[in-house]
Structure formats: C-alpha cells, structure tokens
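Anyone up for a design puzzle?
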C-alpha cells in the first residue's frame, strides 16, 4: 500500500483505541447518508449517529421505513403525519401544509431517554414521489421567467425548507437524513437539503460501482441531478466515505491490519477519492475515508432490539430467527469507530 494508506490504517488503530484526534474537516449542520445501493449500512449508521448526536432531527426518506421502525416499533399502528405528507403540498396544488410533524424519539424508544432527539417518519408512499416531482417540474417548465425559477426552487428545496421549519420548531441544531438506494424522489431532494454527504460503501465491488455512479450523478451535466438545478446551483460535497463490513488480519502482531479483501477495497475506494477530490470538502484524500468493522452479532442484536450500538455490552446475547447472536468483545472497537465518525462531522 502507498504511504498515505499506511497512515490511514495506523489512524484506524488509534481510532479503535479511542485516542485518535478528530479529522480536520469543516463542520456542517445537515448531512445525507446515501449510496445508490441497499444493504450497505446506511440506516445503521444513521441510527447510531442520531443517538450519539445532541440536539438532532433524524429524517427518514426511505420508503422501506427501517429507520422509522428503529425509533418506533409500532409506527404502522401509530398513525401520524409523515415525510410524504409533509412534501406532498409542494407538488399537488391546493393541499394545506402540515407543521409540527417531528416526534420525540424517546416517546417511543426508551433508549433515547434524556436525548434531545426528534425524527420525521417515513412512508411507503414515497415510492411514487419521483413521478409526482417529475410532473411538477414539467408543469413548472411551461411557465416562463422568474416565476419558473421560483417554482423549481420551491420543488427542489421542498425537503430543505420543511426541515428548516421542523428544526426551528424542535429547537434542534443538527440533522441527519437517511435515504433510499435509488436517486429519484426523496433522495434527490435530500441532496439539495444537505450541506454535505456521508457515503457508506460495503467491501464488495457492487458498492464500489454504486459509489462511482453516485459521483458521476453529482457531477455529470447529463445526469438527472444536474439537468434541473435550483437557482443557486446547490450541489453538496462529500464529507466522508465509510467503508463498512471491514475485516482484520488474524496474524499475530498484525496490529489491526486489514485482511486481504478489506485491503483491496481500501485501495480501490481511496483511488476513487483521490481521482474525484474536488467533490470532497477538503483536498486531502486521507481525510475522507474511515473504516467500520463488520457488526456481525452486534449489528443483529442492535437491529432486533432497536438499541444503539453504544449501549451494547460484550456478552449480551439473544436468539434471532432461531439463531443465537452474541455481542463480542469487538463491540468496544466499533463503539469507538462510531464515536470518531460523530466527532469528525459535528
């Protein structure tokens, strides 16, 4: 590996020990967690960063509603106004606009007691949002001049404007947006609502391909993202890529060195960052790649119990789908990795 990658891996050892200094990155209020592929850790990262943050609004824009479930296991029975209801008046004329939508997470998940944390629940109807946005933009293009600009701004900043209002109403200062694994619809709006992006990438080739597609979508003039832009041309930069499901060498004295598969993907992702560094928030590629262990049983228990990983302890176990899962000693390293990601963005 190049020297810069050795430095990155050495830093990861310090992170695991809880002694690394936060990355020299600019700090922002609002982040979207996204990649154009599912099953890579977006929702798990959003859930745990929400717990670690103080004064935070979590926004679930994925129609699968997994983050919403973590916050409220009974969300299907607890009828409430959702992100879809919040956005719809921006695309369907004549509908009244709801307010005070955000819910206190501690009201439905006691693990968040004493946390100043709120969330905006998702909705399966977000699957149809892309067609509604497309129709609204076509209608806007039939209008000319300043009015067209204003209508398109209102469409593209619909999520941003609603989040701003909800943050004011809840007196929160930070926002994390969980997104779906496809671009159109709420993910598109989340990019315009965000100051910067956090991109999980799993240690497999499909995730790396999805990263390359995301970077192209952000920058290519012919992409669906860039075809219709708001008047200020807002394009979020990338704060961090989190390589998930990393594995480590078991050789004695390896000192937290990545195993062969993880090493391959560290090199691939680092090279992509280096080649696209103008799309990141600093000019140093080593600032933008962090490694996150494979959660194994820890992750399964965290999901099943809707419990943030920082609250789990080695030795905890439970049976999930007739298979015993256990929190092993590596949870302490994972907890330090999550705390470091939090400390480097806020």
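Challenge accepted. My sequence:
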């Amino acid at each position: 590996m190049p020297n810069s990658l050795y430095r990155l891996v050495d830093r990861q050892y310090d992170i695991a020990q809880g002694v690394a200094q936060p990355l020299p990155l600019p700090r922002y209020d609002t982040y979207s967690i996204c990649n154009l592929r599912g099953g890579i850790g977006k929702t798990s990262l959003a859930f745990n960063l929400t717990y670690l943050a103080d004064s935070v609004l979590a926004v679930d824009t994925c129609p699968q509603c997994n983050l919403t479930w973590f916050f409220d296991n009974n969300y299907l029975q607890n009828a409430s106004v959702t992100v879809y209801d919040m956005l719809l008046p921006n695309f369907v004329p004549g509908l009244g606009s709801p307010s005070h939508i955000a819910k206190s997470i501690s009201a439905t998940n006691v693990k968040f007691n004493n946390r100043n944390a709120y969330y905006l629940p998702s909705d399966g109807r977000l699957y149809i949002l892309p067609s509604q946005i497309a129709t609204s933009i076509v209608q806007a293009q039939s209008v000319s001049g300043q009015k067209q600009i204003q209508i398109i701004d209102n469409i593209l900043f619909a999520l941003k404007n609603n989040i701003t209002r909800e943050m004011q109403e809840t007196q929160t200062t930070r926002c994390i947006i969980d997104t779906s694994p496809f671009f159109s619809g709420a993910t598109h709006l989340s990019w315009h609502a965000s100051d910067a992006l956090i991109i999980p990438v799993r240690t497999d080739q499909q995730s790396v391909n999805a990263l390359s597609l995301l970077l192209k979508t952000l920058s290519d003039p012919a992409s669906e993202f860039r075809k219709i832009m708001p008047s200020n041309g807002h394009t979020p930069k990338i704060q961090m890529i989190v390589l998930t499901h990393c594995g480590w060498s078991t050789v004695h004295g390896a000192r937290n060195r990545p195993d062969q598969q993880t090493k391959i993907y560290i090199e691939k992702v680092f090279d992509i960052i280096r080649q696209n560094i103008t799309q990141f928030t600093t000019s140093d590629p080593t600032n933008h790649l962090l490694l996150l262990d494979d959660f194994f049983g820890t992750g399964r228990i965290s999901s099943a119990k809707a419990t943030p990983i920082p609250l789990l302890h080695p030795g905890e176990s439970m049976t999930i789908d007739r298979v015993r899962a256990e929190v092993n000693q590596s949870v302490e390293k994972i907890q330090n990795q999550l705390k470091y990601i939090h400390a480097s963005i806020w």
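A detail worth pointing out: The chain has a mean pLDDT of 94.
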